[in-house]
Amino acid sequence: MLRLVVDLNRCQGYAQCAFLAPDVFAMHGDEGLLYDPQAEDAQRERLAQAVAACPVQAILVDELDLAATAGSASTPTATSTPAGEAPDA
Asked: 14 vs 3, 9, 17, CA distance in Å?
């Protein structure tokens, strides 16, 4: 799962995200954005496109989840530790 946060104060309703990742984002009326804060891994490519296409960069993806899937198998504890906290020794 990927954790998403959309800064709804920054979002201007351009709907590029809803066009590129309709299973994650949807427009409610002309300006209201609805989204699933826990997107499935299968949506990763479409989500990356939606994030890149947002003209105001209002979509944030939890970097820890992305690092866990992109990291090597030899460092799983480093990628699963919350930012700012040391892993248990």
From this structure: 22, 13, 8
The residue whose two tokens read 């989840």 is 65
Which residue, chain included where needed, has tokens 């530790």?
81
- Residue 81 pLDDT: 39
Distance from C-alpha of 1 to C-alpha of 66, rounded to nearest angstrom: 9
Residue 12 and residue 28 in contact, taking contact as beta carbons nearer than 8 Å: no
Q: What per-residue confidence (pLDDT) applies to 40?
A: 87
Considering the entire predicted model, what is its pTM? Answer: 0.67
Sheet holding 38-39, edge to edge: 38-39, 2-6, 59-61
* 28-77 residue pLDDT tens: 987 789 999 998 888 999 999 999 999 999 999 885 444 555 554 443 33
Q: Where are the alpha helices (DSSP H) in the chain?
A: 16-20, 44-53, 63-70, 76-79
